[in-house]
User: What shape does this take?
Amino acid sequence: MYRTLPFLLMLLISCAQGREQKGIQLTPVTVKKQKEEKKDYLTVLSAAKSFKQKSIDSDSFEIIYGRFIVDSIIPFWYGTKWNFYGNTQEPQKGSIACGYFVTTVLRDAGLHINRVKLAQVPSEEMIKSICNRNSIKRFSNTVMPAFINELLQSENGLYIVGLDFHTGFIYHNNRELYFIHASYQMPQVVIKQNATESSILSSSKYKVIGKVNLQL
Assistant: This one.
């Protein structure tokens, strides 16, 4: 089973080929394009759930599936508009708030969670419900370099970070830390950025972070 995991991952990522690393999409999306992307998104989700069922007991599941979520599911959301009250369930359609972005992506990735309830609670409560308890760390008035250094010492994988008034994903891929979130700063869309360059991260006095339990 372990030898087949990288091959399966390559097949899954190919479903979203061409969307990786786009970051911000500002060009208008036509109705035809929306329909095509919705079909592609549903295909990726179907493949993801099948992959999860077959591979969940693998020692490397957490790393491989976390990478798949970042490389193949989340890119469909880049450019989706942020709104404080947004709760869309479809990429590129309507708007989405930061908490709903996190819970919708994880729900779509096959985690058995309450998308609405967890999106509406304080981010620390969401983290306690979704993340491995022994991975949760809290930082108060910690300077950004120390915060980044602490994260770089952590295991690779997909994390949720809760801030003073915001939440999103942190992805640690052994070389870099990426902050992926529905940003309230201009241009107010879902983006992926280097964590060291995020003013939203650096300005938050309180931070709590936990590694997502992808086996939920």
